[in-house]
Specification:
Pathway: Amino-acid degradation; L-tryptophan degradation via kynurenine pathway; L-kynurenine from L-tryptophan: step 1/2
Number of domains: 1
Cofactor: heme
Distance between the termini: 62 Å
Bound molecules: protoporphyrin IX containing FE, N'-Formylkynurenine
Pfam family, one: Trp_dioxygenase
Enzyme class: oxidoreductase
Shape: globular
Radius of gyration: 23 Å
CATH architecture: Up-down Bundle
Number of strands: 2
Largest sheet: 2 strands, antiparallel
Oligomer: single chain
Keywords: Dioxygenase, Heme, Iron, Metal-binding, Oxidoreductase, Tryptophan catabolism
Helix content: 55-70%
Order of helices and strands: EEHHHHHHHHHHHHHH
């Protein structure tokens, strides 16, 4: 139905020949709505090696998922700050499902052998996943704050500014701790107000608060659920890091990275990082 003064929607129809007809509005097609022309014009391997297409696509898919994770995790942090935990749980669950997809993507990439990769590795120059600004934003947002990591992006002012906004603001974990304070847990002042761009220092008071929540889950059910959503996210992040490290070892062994790091040794060291340290340490204390 349409109003009298509006133009009727133009319709197109095709008979599929099996007693089915498809009708559609030709003013907005699938490809137009999804902007597929520019999207599908972006897969441009620079060598003539067969496997480079896979390498490009796997990175592009990961970057799209990172975009969605950032969309969800930023919104979850805002919801938590507004004491709206249920929508935040839904968003964090979605982040965990996306992470599962990103982890599974390593299985596809593992079909590329060392010789397949080495055949085009030189064309990559000094580019590296180390320069993924969305990945860095997600790390900052979850709570791995290191101003030096933003420096790799100085030459791109828009990315640098964006990274600094997230670096200088409370992380997802910081807003959760602020929520615990609003719920009456006594936390150190430095946990609630500090220079957010600096690395987080774990505290016994925060661990004690999580301990109370885990011991009395029935009384603090929503905070208990929040703790488990955070653990899911960190657990999956860690699985992603581990699979990346193992895939890299399988493909380039102990070579140093194009981004200037030692390679696998650097990636192994990153496995020790913790976004929500007291949520892990408390498990040994319950
Ligand atoms: C053949 C496949 C791959 C190899 C050999 C590889 C290798 C490496 C190496 C050696 C590093 C350390 C930095 C450096 O010196 O370059 C690194 C970092 C990184 N890579 Fe990959 N990578 C591969 C695939 C991927 C894929 C598919 C992604 C998905 C987006 C990715 C994302 C990253 C990220 C985000 C970092 C930074 C990690 C951090 O700083 O903690 N890599 N990669
Ligand atoms: N750091 C990798 C190169 C690499 O993997 C890469 C290069 C360009 C764009 C994305 C990449 N992926 C992850 O680091 C290497 O050292 O072979």
């Amino acid at each position: 139905m349409h109003d009298d003064n509006s133009t009727p929607r133009e319709r197109s129809a095709v008979d599929l020949g099996n007693e089915q007809q498809v009708h559609w509005d030709p003013t907005m097609s699938y490809g137009e709505y999804l902007d597929l022309a520019p999207l599908l014009a972006c897969q441009n391997p620079i060598s003539d090696q067969h496997d480079e297409m896979l390498f490009v696509i796997i990175h592009q898919v990961s970057e799209l998922w990172l975009k969605q994770c950032l969309h969800e995790a930023h919104a979850a942090a805002r919801a938590i700050s507004a004491d709206e935990l249920r929508p935040a749980f839904k968003m964090l669950t979605r982040v965990a499902r996306i992470q599962a997809q990103m982890i599974n993507a390593w299985e596809v990439l593992a079909t590329m052998t060392p010789s397949d990769y080495l055949a085009f590795r030189d064309s990559l120059g000094q580019s590296s996943g180390f320069q993924s600004y969305q990945y860095r934003e997600l790390e900052f947002l979850l709570g791995n704050k290191h101003p030096r990591l933003a420096e790799a992006h100085r030459r791109h002012p828009a990315h640098y500014q964006r990274l600094h906004e997230v670096l200088d603001a409370p992380s997802l974990y910081d807003v959760c701790l602020q929520l615990l304070a609003r719920r009456g847990f006594e936390l150190p002042e430095a946990t609630l107000q500090r220079d957010w761009s600096t690395p987080y220092t774990p505290s016994p008071e925060v661990e004690a608060a999580w301990s109370t929540i885990y011991r009395h889950a029935e009384r603090y059910w929503d905070l208990y659920e929040l703790a488990e959503k955070l653990i899911d996210t960190e657990y999956n992040f860690h699985k992603w890091r581990f699979s990346h490290m193992k895939t890299v070892e399988r493909i380039i062994g102990q070579r140093s990275g194009t981004g200037g790091t030692s390679g696998v040794a650097y990636l192994e060291k990153a496995l020790a990082l913790r976004f929500f340290p007291e949520l892990w340490s408390v498990r040994g204390e319950l």
